[in-house]
Design a protein that fits this description.
The chain is an all-alpha fold. The chain is built from 22 helices and no strands.
Length: 389
């Protein structure tokens, strides 16, 4: 007669799997970043993707004479996080040397983290940006695995969705915020769904300052708390957790007011150019891809491949959104808002692979949990009550 393994043994196994997912994340990040550094003499500053034409490049070269500069076509958003790390509250000179400064400062958390972690040593900022992203990828993979196993929402190997996520690996290699924000999201969900809400609160607040769309995570959790209470009885609604969830969006709104007062423009002013009514942006982009050869010339080979990819992604997200609208659990509620934001994107974020894999990195992880079998999803929605409410 075979003896069943103890609960303690099973728990240890899932934790080891989570550690394994974290190690895979570290290995993948090392491969991606290592290939870039080997090709650039080990100079970490190349990951910032700053061009000589960037006004900030003179400041960077004054801080580090060997700061690696890239061709203009290789310029990317790491430059803006570098600027925010130099000038966290737009009170110095760096914010005047980047374009669309109000928009960039509308989501400054990654730059803030780098400013704090560099301890005022500006020459450390490129290394700190990299370390933060790698740490975020590893922690995100570990915590995604723990969430999946703790709530029986699929296999503990779900952490590989983070570890081997192309968008997150690209973020690590380009000093972008997605890897770290994924870790913050995973940690926040872990503590919130285990009813350790005071611990979850600061993570949920920080999350709002990473990306505009992540402000909707507390909103999604708020919808879940309301629905969970209403399904039990109107008196079962717990208003204290809802007040916790409001802290992040309120502080974020106040920060937007500060940025407007400081820079003379609202951070969200670029929104109409980047968003449309969902899913019109997707449909218009799919239509554009039919004219690839006429519009993009030398990029036609690359962009033409995006047509089947974009169609598949569009259909998959629509199916997942319809499934999530049943609101079986907290992940469903969060995903609905993230999916609507994703489906509201237009060609600025959808035409080219590097943009697409970046913007869909977090929604794609949530999508997998949304597609979990119903029985597991229902159990996941019934996380235990606690005195820490």
């Amino acid at each position: 007669m075979t003896r069943a393994p103890s609960t303690r043994t099973l728990r240890l196994d899932t934790r080891l799997i989570a550690v394994g997912c974290g190690l895979v994340a570290l290995f993948a990040a090392t491969m991606v970043v290592g290939s870039i550094l080997v090709a650039n003499g080990g100079n970490v500053t190349v990951l910032v993707r700053m061009a000589a034409e960037d006004p900030l490049s003179e400041v960077a070269r004054n801080i580090e004479p060997d700061f690696a500069l890239v061709p203009p076509v290789a310029h990317y958003d790491g430059v803006y996080y570098y600027a925010i790390a130099l000038d966290p509250f737009a009170t110095e000179d760096a914010h005047e040397l980047i374009d669309l400064a109000a928009h960039r400062y509308g989501h400054p958390a990654y730059g803030w983290f780098a400013a704090v972690a560099s301890f005022g040593q500006d020459e450390w900022i490129p290394e700190v940006l990299l370390l933060l992203s790698v740490a975020g990828l590893v922690l995100g993979a570990y915590m995604a695995s723990r969430v999946a196993s703790r709530f029986e929402l699929g296999s503990a190997w779900a952490g590989l969705l983070v570890a081997l996520n192309p968008g997150l690996l690209f973020a690590v290699a380009a000093d972008l915020s997605e890897a770290l924000s994924t870790a913050i999201l995973a940690v926040a969900l872990w503590f919130w769904l285990t009813n350790k809400r005071w611990i979850a609160l600061p993570f949920l607040v920080l999350l709002c300052f990473f990306k505009f769309q992540l402000v909707l995570v507390p909103v999604g959790l708020g919808v879940w708390e309301l629905l969970r209470g209403l399904r039990a009885a109107p008196r079962a609604i717990r208003w204290k957790p809802l007040s916790y969830l409001a802290v992040g969006p309120v502080l974020f709104a106040l920060w937007q007011v500060y940025v407007h007062a400081r820079l003379g423009e609202w951070p969200t002013s670029l929104g109409p150019e980047l968003l449309s009514v969902p899913p019109l942006g997707f449909l218009e982009t799919i239509g554009l891809l039919g004219h690839t050869n006429q519009i993009y010339n030398g990029d036609a080979q690359l962009v033409a491949a995006m047509l089947p990819v974009l169609v598949a992604i569009f259909v998959l997200f629509v199916i997942a959104l319809v499934r999530a609208l049943r609101f079986r659990n907290a992940i469903d509620c969060i995903f609905v808002f993230q999916a609507l934001m994703f489906l509201a994107l237009n060609h600025w974020n959808l035409l080219f692979p590097k943009e697409l894999i970046r913007v869909m990195a977090i929604p794609a992880i949530l999508l997998v949990f949304v597609l979990a079998p119903d029985e597991k999803a229902r159990r996941f929605g019934q996380y235990p009550a606690s005195a820490n409410s």
